[in-house]
Amino acid sequence: MTDTGGTPDPNRKAANPRYISSAPFDPQSVEALTPEQERYYLASQWKLMWWKLTRHKVALIAGAFLLAQYLVVLIAEMVAPYNMSERHTDHIYAPPQAVRVFHDGKFVGPFVYGLKYNLNQETLRREYTVDTTKVHRIRFFCSGDKYEFWGLIPMSFHLVCPDKGGTFFLLGTDRMGRDMFSRITVGARISLTIGFFGVLISFILGIVIGGLAGYYGGWVDNIVQRIIEVMRSFPVLPLWMALSAALPVTWSPLLVYFGITLILGLLDWTGLARAVRSKLFSLREEDFATAAQLMGAKPARIIGRHLLPSFMSHLIASATLSIPAMILGETALSFLGLGLRPPITSWGVLLSEAQNINAVALYPWLMLPVVPVVLTVLAFNFLGDGLRDAADPYK
């Protein structure tokens, strides 16, 4: 081979013509993305989370159950067949009435049989028996007991009503003859909302305090960590009890409600604050955070606009796992007589009326308020697991 001094020979062909092409670019020759691939690559983070969540069937069922519960909370007085404070003195400790549709072999629609009782002179216990001669039809979209919708608007409309002159105790009655189903339905408003507002308070504190500790570090982080360690060193339930017992007995039920909510929120932010701190420690050194800082963005904007949205999905999953702890906290305090008190009705207040083991042995339906507590806590945990898996970028 003749050395040309580095000058290329114009008569010599390229050694590898594959890398040089003088033909015009043909877009049809490039393999195009399928519509399904294009939809996936262009999807936002929230849409990807939703697609992952739809594959978690248990989480979807749990979410639908919780959504139905909160919808019922909005119209609880309408769903309840009775006013929750209405007393039926002739039906004290009445057992649940079964809903039937056939009478004497004929279809008559939803109805319940009447009840008759006699007082046992030896045990002084009311003994109820089913009276098949009295058929009480169940009415729908009807006018019944008067009530104040959300304590503001006088109304008498109910989705379900007993027959005129009849009874409809789906879950029985309590020691004052009040319908248990109506009280559980209306009491759900307190038990479910107290967890929501409690988590809202704890999230504000956890994000703000944990964000400052994670972004600044140094002495700010040391002070925050010591405060968290001191608060977590106290047993949770005794601390709840001590603070709840400190609430003045002269407070109105509404003030007690907000007081319990504030106590639950102020004591539950520590776990979230540590999670936010650890996330910000790793994210504050990323290029996008450094670029925002060099452009003159203030720390509040960097944390709120750039860092927190990077793990917002994790925060949402944490919220769904924190709400059941709030619900159990309110239920435990009310059950022990240190939380909400009558005339406010919640699931914990209803369970506090079933503390007498003799009453539970004779009238087991008084323990039915524990069923929605268990189902709600399980639903929140299943939904939280689904959201956590959907937010995990490695799954």
Question: Your description of this structure?
Answer:
With 395 residues, this protein is α+β, with helices and mostly antiparallel strands. It folds into 2 domains: 78-177, no CATH class; 182-391, MetI-like fold (Orthogonal Bundle), CATH 1.10.3720. 52% of the residues lie in helices and 13% in strands. The chain contains 15 helices and 5 strands. It has helices at 35-41, 45-54, 57-74, 76-79, 180-216, 218-232, 236-245, 253-266, 270-283, 287-294, 299-307, 312-335, 347-352, 357-362, 370-391, and strands at 100-103, 106-120, 125-137, 139-149, 153-161. The strands form 2 sheets. A 3-stranded antiparallel sheet has the order 1-2-3, with no helix packed on it. It has a two-stranded antiparallel ribbon with strand order 4-5. Helix 3 crosses helix 5 (180-216), helix 5 runs parallel beside helix 9 and helix 5 (180-216) packs across helix 12. The radius of gyration is 32 Å and the shape is globular.
Identify low-pLDDT runs. none
Number of domains: 2
* Tally of separate helices: 15
Distance between the termini: 58 Å
In order across it, which strands form the biggest sheet? 1-2-3
- Largest sheet at a glance? 3 strands, antiparallel
Report the sheet-strand fraction: 5-15%
The top-level CATH class of the largest domain is Mainly Alpha
Task: Give the overall silhouette.
Answer: globular
Multimeric organization: single chain
The radius of gyration over CA amounts to 32 Å
Q: What is the number of E strands? A: 5
What structural category characterises the helix and strand content?
alpha+beta
Give the CATH superfamily of the largest domain: MetI-like
Write down the secondary-structure element order. HHHHEEEEEHHHHHHHHHHH
What value does the average pLDDT take? 82
Helix content: 40-55%
